[in-house]
Amino acid sequence: MNLSSGLTFSLGHVDRVYTDTNDVHFAGINETGANISPQVIDFYPYQSITKSKVKLSAQPLLRGVNDSIASGDLILYCSINQIYFYLGPINTKNLPGNSFDFLDSMENNTNLNILPGSQKLTKPRNSKLDFPNGKIIDGEISKNNPKYINSQYSDLTLEGRYGNAIRLGARSDNPNIIISNNNVSSQETLVGGGSIISMTSLGTMSDMLNLPENTKLSYDGNVFMGRANPNNSGSFTPYLGYELDYNYQYGEIKSEEDIEEQELDQIIIGSDKITFNSAHEDITLSSTRNVRIGAVENIELYNKGYSVFESRNIYIGRKAKDRSQPMVLGEELRQLLYRVLKVIGSAHSVDSNFVSQKLSNGPGMPGTVEAEIKSIMTAFNLGDYNLDRNPPAGYNPNLSEGEPVGDRSTGNATFMSQHHFIETNRE
């Protein structure tokens, strides 16, 4: 073949597709005699508009990019050095799930390559996104304005047959990348299900993902992404301030200054279930402002080591921010109780003869107050009553992480945790 004259492509009808080297019951060779490998097809060449009865085999022309091919598709094929290559399928219906061969008289709508519900991605006009300033040069936004007409352009899209796609696009001069799966709409959306990773530089979550204006995150409402939230019965009515405090309007353009600041980029990930798993190294979340975690039901944290919460202030419950109820330092409390009980236990009374004697318990309670104090101090491990000085804390900083430090063997009070600690007040 003289390649200097170029390649000649002809039309073909796909009969069978092979997806694996073991896709036939005989040893890697199909009925045409060709070796079987992924994306190899059997096809019938067209002679004019009539299919040939001679079946041939072909492999993809492009090395690393292979479109989804199915029986019944219309393709282009060529021959190079007696090897057949194909391009396709040809976009006969302009639908990602439907590219049936309209030249085949036997073709009908029941062909296997027609997938219901799979729509081609669209890019409908959105004045907030296409013209974020609200106006265009030389006049107001108008469908009859030539600048409006000429400003529309399509995105680079990679669309599968099953409602999965990658969009490399833009709104105005602001780029976006959207990866979607199980999408049932002509636009990427979480309404009705599916998964999305959206990277945008303009527009709110509702604008870019085709969501109702009142769409809320799972924690904030009974309706999430157009669907009822099965985990939120609505029976819980939190007091004011329990909202997640999420900025649903982030990405909205309000002035030219907003565009110039270039602080409108965001990533949104949504699905029915999301799992992050690191097999060998850390998972790190870092933010120059806040990190928020919200759940309709519970938040559970598990680890096999220690947990550290380093913060200027820690509030358990938002109402705690009024700082009316500070936490207690366990060792400080133990020392206070020790000293108070020592004072009470060592107190004496004076009888009518001015003779000092130990305080006795009330009626029906035999023994002295001192004996009862000793019993209390022993029961709660507050310290040795007989020592003249307050014993030191039982905490041993040289113990290994995770080793109990608040049990009786260390001398700590029994009401002090052996697993959980808070820092002392700063100087």
Q: Can you summarize this structure?
A:
The chain is α+β, with helices and mostly antiparallel strands and 427 residues long.
Account of the 3D structure:
- The protein is an alpha+beta fold and 427 residues long.
- The chain has three domains: 3-87, no CATH class; 127-270, no CATH class; 310-427, no CATH class.
- Helices cover 11% and strands 17% of the residues.
- The protein has six helices and 15 strands.
- It has helices at 127-130, 146-150, 205-208, 256-261, 330-346, 369-379; strands at residues 10-17, 41-47, 50-51, 56-60, 74-80, 83-87, 156-159, 165-171, 174-181, 195-200, 223-224, 227-228, 266-270, 348-350, 356-358.
- It has a five-stranded mixed barrel.
- Helix 5 packs antiparallel against helix 6 (369-379).
- The chain is elongated, with a radius of gyration of 37 Å.
- Mean pLDDT is 79; it is low at 222-229, 231-241, 393-398 and 405-409.
